Amino acid sequence: MMLRYALQTVRDRKGGFVGAFLALMCAAGLITACGTLLETGLRGTIKTERYAAAPVIVSADQNVHQTTVKHKKGKTKIKHKAKPIAERAWLPADDIGSRIKRVPGVDFVVPELTFIAQPLSPGAGTGAGPDDNADTPTYGHAWKSAALTPFRLVDGKAPRSSRDLVIDRGLADRAGLRPGDRLTVQSTQSPRDYRITGVAAPANGALTHQTSLFFSSDEAERLAAHPGKVTAFGVIPAEGTSVADLEKAVEQAVEGTTAQVSAGDDRGPVEFLDAAGARVKLVSMGGAMGGTSLLVAVLVVVGTFALSIQQRHRELALLRAVAATPQQIRRLLGREAVLVGVVAGAAGALAGIPLAGVLHERFVATGAVPATLERTVSAFPPLVAVAATVLGAWAAARIAGRRIVRIRPAQALAEAQIEPRRPAWSRVVAGLVLLVGGVVLVAVLSVLRTEAASTPVTFLTVVVFACAIALLGPFVVRAAAALLRGPLRLSGPGGKLAHANLRGNAARMAAVVTPLALLTGMACTVLFVQPTLDDAARGQARDGIRADWVLAAQGPGVPAQAARKLRTTDGVQAATEVVRTTVRVGLDKYPAQGVTPEHLARTWDPDVTAGSIEDFGEESGAVSELAADRLGLKPGSTLAFTLGDGTKTKLTVRAVYARGLGFGDLTMAHDLVARHVDNPLAATVLVRSDRTQEQLAAAVDKFPGVRVLTPAAADDLQAESRRTNAEVNLLAMGLVLAFTAIAVVNTLAMSVSERVREFAMLRLAGATRRQVLRMLRTEALAVLFIGTALGSGVALAVLTAFSIGMTGSAAPTVAPLVYVSVLTVAGLLALIATALPGRAALRPLPVTVATAKE
To answer: Span 784-789, mean pLDDT?
Structure first.
């Protein structure tokens, strides 16, 4: 019976359910898109390219491991955790190679070397490569590993001497190169000019995600800069040996070593380490987006249903008056919500699939996710979205209809005409609890000093405060109405009517204030969190560089030979190479850098607070105050950690410094870091010299792409890379902001469209159409002021706490123009969502509306 009534109600009152339908549909689309990204991080396919002809690949373990043993109540629990390392781990060539060769069923073994190798222009000085228009990275290999794909020569011959080079056909076609031409390549050493001896092409079609350069075996080993080690081994089975049997046999042969065996789809992550690492990032990003989206969706959907049920208060009160029981009303509201939720969830889930595709493409375009990590599409995220939407709709309807169900029928009829002055005590208590919870989260946020910990708390705090505003909204609106009484009454009859509506319909106005506050608070937080962090890091780096000049490169980095050349140049007091990486202490990740120890204090000032960098040496380390506090370190302490390629080492802490945001949490000797990273070239070289920019540029003119910059110009280049990171974060939260903006329009339109009878009575009482519209605009501006003021206050509190925790300063970065833009967008949304439904509500004749049966 209740289901039939629910169907009839939804059919007859389509307009009343449009707002709820739109909110639920957007929520389902949001959850589907975030869920698809999360699933891509968990199960996304990384297909192999260069290892296509090698069914089994042996590579080094790319994780750092930690095993903990706990004894509790006579039981022993063993937990094993693993975290990925930042750089490529290498294998000992002789030991692992000999083990594999002795395995029965192995036909032959192909050692693999992979290293950076970027083509530069044939002429020196520009650093621009013939392959500049290609989006794919370029790697160098030994020619004997061409069999792994396999590559076949289509022109010329294989490389024999150290100056010979074979390029792939894709590069040859793009750059117009052929055998006999010369090409300068920047690899791990100084740029070198090579003679192209051949052009090769993959047997099964061009590679999509990389460009390959092939060198002679000796030259490849020199450029790989890991003597006696290889990137991987490709294992080719003998005739009659299955891949599964070969994989199992090889695993047994390398058991007890750091080697791992991969076959089938597992070869892709070995080939594309950046894609494998991006899985973790995408899981984190998808989870954060999904969690925030879900919280925002719940808040918006509950608010929308509350407004929808408030519009039907008289209808539901009459049902109570004609003997409908509370249980029957609950069932009616619940089944209406389920019907709307099923349809809206299905529509939103279908729309969320292409939306996830657009997001994935944008992440790839910005470099946040490599193109080699393919998007996973399955039925699981849409099904979860539909289920969450239906459950959310049902819960929202039950929550929103709680009061109409619990109060007496006579009281329900009275409240259908006049809004109750005081909300239910349960609502007030819940609002106060959330308000206190928000204050506690702000306090917690002010002591969090890592971005991974503070970012989710930041957005959670905004949502908690928005929930408190939603519950305490009537009190907030009445208080604001009291403050705005003077300005509103001065604006004429429309202002007086607007003030009366604010006071008399505080609950309805609060339903509009909440999404406006959420939009403003969330938008300001998203837009200003990353600039706050970036500006603090940029300021610390700027203040800590004592160098007169900075060497930078358009290619992969500045060669060590360029820094050595500068050190022998007259007038140069110091040249400090800086190479960056990430290390792990236990399983925790820390940004790190390697610097040249000689004359370090002349070019670098990290604001040492304990110890000294004057005696910095090869076995020395310096740590940030954050790392020192977390790890319990001080000058003289021994720090054990894992380098980027998985090598474990120990250093003696010589100094603790304050500028950790600008220079990372760990600083060590340049040569130590350079031996354990994929790219040993310096990101920058800090130069202390009394020579001019032109004189220093002349000293390094033999190194293509290397430029001499002022510290300010180098700082601008770093800022550009940080802006890219900010774009990724903004894109990640853009869906949430868009959903919140839709909620603002939806709620405002619902609030205005229900007032047809009210407007008709005003018209019959003598108000003109223009006066009613003026009253609506004044109301919208008043609500806009209240919502944006609350949202701005929430954002300011959250950003200030974030800034205190992350930078030590209570001064977040707020761009006035961006803030004004947020208010302008909110204002335009509010006015449009008020004006259009208002004009539609005024279209019927007042007499017709007033005499119509309800």
So the answer is: 92
> What is the per-residue pLDDT for 125?
33
- Distance (Å, whole) CA 739 – CA 297: 8
Question: Collapsing DSSP states into helix, strand and coil, what is residue 78?
Answer: strand
Distance CA 683, CA 553 (A): 8
DSSP assignment letter at 558: B
- 22-52 burial, b at 16+ Cβ within 10 Å, e below that, comes to bbbbbbbbbbbbbbbbbbbbeebebbbbbbb
Q: Taking residues 124-151, report their average pLDDT.
A: 71
For the segment 452-477, the average pLDDT, to the nearest whole number, is 89
Which distant-in-sequence residues (6+ apart) come within 8 Å of 848 by Cβ?
Answer: none
Closest-CA residue to 294 (of 35, 560, 610, 509): 35
Whether residue 150 is preceded by a cis peptide bond, meaning omega within 30 degrees of 0, is yes
Q: What is the pTM of this model?
A: 0.81
CB-based contact 380:39 (threshold 8 Å) = yes
Beta bridge pairs of residue 545: 604
Say what percent of the chain tops pLDDT 70.
89
User: Encoding tokens for residue 395?
Assistant: 């819960």
- Compute the chain's Rg from CA coordinates: 33
What is the reported pLDDT for 128? Answer: 38
Q: What is the pLDDT of residue 8?
A: 58
Report whether 477 contacts 786 (CB < 8 A).
yes
CA atoms within 13 A on the CB side of 499: 17
CB contact burial 497-519 (16+ within 10 A = b; e otherwise): bbbebbbebbebbbbbbbbbbbb
Strand partners, 642: 584, 648
pLDDT at 271 over 50: yes
Cα distances from 295 to residues 462, 465, 647, 738, in angstroms, run 10, 12, 42, 15
Q: Which helix (H) or strand (E) holds 249?
A: helix 243-253
Is 686:604 a contact under the CB 8 Å cutoff? yes
- Around 590, how many Cα atoms within 13 Å sit in the side-chain half-sphere? 30
Give the Cα separation of 209 and 50 in Å (integer). 10
Residue 447 to residue 456: CA distance in whole angstroms: 14
Reduced to 3 states (helix: H, G, I; strand: E, B; else coil), residue 165 is strand
The string of pLDDT tens digits covering residues 419-464 is 555 667 777 898 999 999 999 999 999 999 888 788 889 989 999 9
Q: Write the CA distances from 600 to 244, 355, 463, 559, 668, integer angstroms.
A: 54, 50, 47, 19, 11
Q: What is d(CA 603, CA 595) in angstroms, rounded to the nearest whole number?
A: 10
Q: Of the candidates 581, 701, 576, 575, which has an alpha carbon nearest to the alpha carbon of residue 191?
A: 701
Nearest of 728, 361, 823 to residue 526 by alpha carbon:
728
Q: Is the pLDDT of residue 515 over 90?
A: no
Query: Structure tokens of 744?
Result: 């603002």
The length of the chain in residues reads: 854
Residues paired with residue 112 on neighbouring β-strands, in sequence order: 232
| Residue 129 reports pLDDT greater than 50 | no
Provide the CA 329 distance to its chain's centre, in angstroms.
44
Number of neighbours of residue 424 by Cβ within 10 angstroms? 14
- The pairing of beta strand 118-120 with beta strand 182-186: antiparallel
Cα–Cα nearest to 797, from 427, 534, 444, 475: 444
d(CA 586, CA 63): 11
Q: Which residue has the tokens 């003021």?
A: 789
CA distance 801 to 230: 48
Give strand pairing partners of 263. Answer: 56
Distance (Å, whole) CA 194 – CA 225: 18
Q: What is the DSSP letter of 85?
A: -
Please report the pLDDT score of residue 133 as a whole number: 41
| Sheet with strand 106-112: strands edge to edge | 106-112, 232-237, 56-60, 259-263
Rounded to 10°, the helix 816-841/756-764 angle is: 70
Instruction: Report residue 47 as tokens.
Output: 């297909």
